[in-house]
Amino acid sequence: MIDRLIDKIIEKQNPTVVGLDPRLEMVPQFMRERYFNEQGKTPKAVAKMFFEFNKEIIDNVYDIVPAVKPQIAMYERYGHEGVQCYIKTNEYAKSKGLMVIGDVKRGDITSTAEAYAEGHIGEVKIDDQYYNIYNQDAITLNPYLGSDSIEPYIKYCEKYDKGLFILVKTSNPNSGEIQDLKTNEGKLYERVGRLVSKWGKQLMGEHGYSQIGAVVGATHPKQAENLRNIMPNTYFLVPGYGAQGAKAKDLKGYFNKDGLGAIINSSRGIIAAYLKESNKLKFSEEDFALAAREAAIHMKDDLQGNLFES
User: pTM for this structure?
Assistant: First the structure.
């Protein structure tokens, strides 16, 4: 999985992942009205409009970005209709050649982890039939329960060429309440980083990176430089660019000298770009996906200009 992701990053010359995290208020009014008229103000209407919204975003960015990252919570809250939309979104993204990183943040005891792993990155066996339910190339995990909650996923990563991005240092303001606690091996996030590096050694790709990656928030550049030294062969999934305040110039320490090592996420900064005050005169609601494309191109240029300049 990691080699496929890196190949796409190199091909597109772009370490961007688009977060497909739709909210009802992001969906253009014309689209909301259409589906509410057809389906009523129901979860089914929301699921249908979310899929159309996602589909148009994907159609306008698939040629310039290597991957998308749908956040499952945005879909799960609408019940089975929302989950079906999540699955359809993943399938459509894959059909356009994109990698899919499922932002599911699972974390539980071994027997439950086995079920999550089988469902999300493995195949579900029903008698003599096998099904790939969620169509994801990688997923995010919470490691709080320790190694035995992670090991079932590693087995499926190896068998099905899938990947993990494990929470190490997250971008939210209060992450330090737990992640910065001191241990006899430094801060807690450093301890988790060493564990991630250890878990990843058994799944190294040809580019020199592991299929076991780390989530490292863009709002913590100093900690990221420290983690890059701890985890030189770990790919970082980096949320927090743009809307959460991080800028491209802050992200150099997330990358290795080879120009690889991180993929940078932007969600509402791209998918809701048409709602920015600076864009409202330039893009109509009907042009929301064109606004997303322009925002994705701007992000690509921003990253290239600040990260890879000589």
Answer: 0.95
